[in-house]
Amino acid sequence: MALRSVLPRALDEPLPPDVLADLAARAGRRLARFDPDPVAPPGGRWHVRLRVTDHYDVWLIGWGVDSRVELHDHGDSAGAISVVRATLTEHTPRPGGGFRSHAITTGALHPFAAGAPHDVANEGPDTAMSVHVYSPPLTSMTYYDANATPVRTETIDLPGLVEDR
Ligand SMILES: [Fe+2]
């Protein structure tokens, strides 16, 4: 991690991608030590915010088989995903239409930029768990239709454990 990465910075400026990846990797490794066997119903997800600081927050998400978010971005937050258990698939819109798909396997890290829409899904066969780091801390998500047109923006409440279904 370069020294410039940890120098003081504006609160609305995302931490650099290498720092976000490092935070996600460390949190993922810590959780993997417990050899978690997450439970989530088919098609359902849960999420809990584990940590919040001025510059970033850390979320743990459980993914039932066949669960997905839908196409979304993370507002002004950049971030990184570390998969702790099983495999997630990211779907990213192509400029000319259609989607590019990318598997994020156990132990893999996946950075993403602020404002970049994607969908994330657990396409099975096992229940998945992942750590997500956002910087600045997540405050809103915009959702898109299948043509990658924005349809709604939701502000993020500060939950305990939240089950999406
Ligand atoms: Fe996302």
The CATH class is Mainly Beta
The gross shape turns out to be globular
The overall average pLDDT, rounded, is 90
Low-pLDDT regions: none
Strand content: 35-45%
**Which topology does CATH recognise?**
Jelly Rolls
CATH superfamily: Jelly Rolls
**CATH A-level architecture:** Sandwich
DSSP helix fraction: under 10%
Number of strands: 11
Gyration radius over CA: 15 Å
The largest sheet, given as strand count, sense and whether it forms a barrel, is: 6 strands, antiparallel
Number of helices: 1
Layout of helices and strands:
Blueprint: H1 17-32, E1 45-52, E2 57-63, E3 78-85, E4 88-93, E5 99-104, E6 109-112, E7 119-121, E8 128-135, E9 140-144, E10 150-155, E11 162-163
Antiparallel strand pairs: 1-2, 1-11, 2-8, 3-6, 3-8, 4-5, 4-7, 9-10
This protein binds fe (ii) ion (FE2).
